[in-house]
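=== Structural record ===
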Amino acid sequence: MKSKSIFVVALVFLIQSLFLPISHGDADLIKQTCRHTPDQHLCVSSLIADPRSASADVTGLALIMVDVVKAKAIECANRIDHLLKHRPGDQALSNCKRIYSVVLTADVTVAVEALTKGNLQFAEQSMDDIAMFEAVLCEDGFIGPSPMTDLNNASQKLGAVAAAIVRLLL
């Protein structure tokens, strides 16, 4: 009977470690960090969804958020490619393609390198560029309704959250 109790306790701990990977202390760091961002809910949900956040410091959280920005930019680029197949020659979409190419090849790359090397101003600027310029430029290029509004808005919000986390490190 005692061995069954030990087995049950061990099983409970195993299940908790698999389904609740973020400890109370780690969740507190995430919440404390996200309180200083323009969208606390978006910040917390984005960071908790990544298992790396369980052991991350604030720099690690910033790197995770840059990865979230990158994933959203890839989603944008994929939608643009899909739309261009149905609307070849669309200037607004072609412009957005160039913009999100810059996001992926320059902004995200610079932010990761800058965070890794401690050049925090460059990381902040790269994420601010997405939040304040690139997503807005893509959106404003359309006359009438934009097929990119939802993704541009999401990119803008994620960039602002990432920049805010980096600012905590300055």
About this structure: Residues 5-25 have pLDDT under 50 and may be disordered. The longest helix spans residues 58-86. The two ends are 57 Å apart (CA to CA).
